């Protein structure tokens, strides 16, 4: 299957500017209405790696989240904003507040979805991965009718680049992330597991926040 890719100029995070850029990209790939239908539960899978402020360039900017929520709401669907932070002991409510996701969801008409409180599904590895034979996935992710993946453009000290694929690692809740790093200690092994997660979750749309990216030792210690 061929993927459609669209790029729109977005020089800053002013909400009107972001709204226009997001709408333009969605129009260029054929419109969100071809995927999202009235009544759908649409998960906006953000990058909530840690409780960083938006200007730290660690997490998806809330202006992107608000823009996508508005597009989902226009189609009569329910917008749910969720992730499981990289820090397994993180306070998810604090993280959602600090990153600006909670405010963006409230103002744009979405809801915060806490993966940590979700049931956990055991999903067999689609590639028959012998290191991680069963994936632990938040049931809330699997229950969504549509997943819109909202990664942050960053380089990474280990896997070199974090994009749409790696952002779905957040579908794995809590301490299981740490275990997977242990089970797949090499970048190639870890990347195989990431592809498995992508295959299981199947985000239908990926909208990358590349207005301001991170370079250097990401995912959290790089530079703007």
Distance between the termini: 34 Å
Tell the overall outline: globular
The chain-level mean pLDDT equals: 93
- Strand arrangement across the biggest beta sheet: 3-2-1-6-9
Care to describe what's here?
The chain has 224 residues and is α/β, with parallel strands linked by helices. The chain contains eight helices and ten strands. Strands 3-2-1-6-9 form a five-stranded parallel sheet. The N and C termini lie far apart (34 Å).
Helices and strands in order:
Elements: H1 15-28, E1 41-46, H2 62-74, E2 78-83, H3 92-98, H4 101-108, E3 111-114, E4 120-124, E5 134-138, H5 139-143, E6 146-150, E7 152-156, E8 160-162, H6 164-167, H7 176-183, H8 187-201, E9 205-206, E10 209-214
């Amino acid at each position: 299957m061929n993927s459609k890719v669209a790029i729109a100029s977005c020089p800053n995070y002013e909400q009107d500017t972001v709204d226009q850029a997001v709408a333009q990209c969605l129009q260029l790939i054929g419109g969100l209405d071809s995927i999202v239908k009235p009544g759908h539960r649409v998960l906006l899978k953000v990058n909530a790696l840690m409780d960083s402020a938006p200007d730290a360039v660690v997490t998806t900017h809330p202006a992107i989240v608000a823009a996508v929520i508005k597009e989902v709401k226009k189609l009569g669907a329910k917008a749910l904003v969720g992730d499981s932070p990289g820090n397994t002991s993180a306070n998810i409510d604090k993280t959602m507040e600090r990153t600006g996701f909670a405010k963006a969801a409230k103002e744009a008409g979405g809801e915060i979805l806490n993966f940590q409180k979700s049931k956990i599904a055991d999903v067999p590895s689609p590639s028959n991965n012998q290191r991680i034979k069963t994936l632990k996935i938040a049931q809330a992710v699997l229950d969504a009718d549509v997943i819109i993946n909202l990664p942050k453009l960053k380089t990474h000290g280990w896997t070199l680049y974090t994009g749409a694929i790696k952002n779905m690692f957040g579908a794995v809740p809590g301490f299981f992330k740490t275990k997977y790093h242990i089970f797949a200690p090499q970048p190639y092994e870890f990347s195989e597991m990431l592809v498995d997660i992508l295959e299981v979750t199947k985000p239908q749309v990926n909208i990358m926040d590349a207005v301001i990216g991170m370079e250097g030792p990401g995912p959290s210690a790089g530079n703007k």
